[in-house]
Amino acid sequence: MSQSGEHEGALRLRRAVRSGALSTGGAPFSVRAGSEFLAGLHAALASSDELLFDTLYRAGYAWGEGWLERLDRSLSSMSLNRKALELDDLEFMLKDEFASSRWGHLEMDTKSRASVGVVLVTVTGGPVALLPESARGLAMLLGGFMAGVFTGIAGVPMAGLGVPWTEAAAARLLVAHERRVERVWLKLTHGAEWNEALDALE
User: What is the pTM of this model?
Assistant: First the structure.
């Protein structure tokens, strides 16, 4: 494709994103569950079971992969290609996804740690704020989601990390190559503050 053709494709993609013409979700649905089930689920999320956290991360990762697959189908139906998608367009759609599904308000920072290949995301409100006892499990779920999305976007394996930010009733998420995520997690487990752990990557 010529450069002019690529430019036109990128413009069409941006117009589709900003107009809301793209859809990455299905019809609204509801699940009826008894109070016993909901109480058990809440207790599980509030536990400190590392196996559960791993399961939540994997579930989030599958959610992220599925979201990206739905985006690709929507793009394909409009003869558009995800390769022309810019990061601010991706952020726009993720903000909409989180807001419409009531997961909270998403902010994505692709610049402050770009030198070390790290994307930072903050999610405020939603379940993380409403269920503070479950914040760690929910943060792991969201970290997995972002890892699933960015693995597809980057075309290489990416890992995610989600930790509660109690003071702000929010979740802090990090997406990077696995070794960088492991370094940050190791710093955090040894008592480092969030920004201090990130500084160790510089």
Answer: 0.80
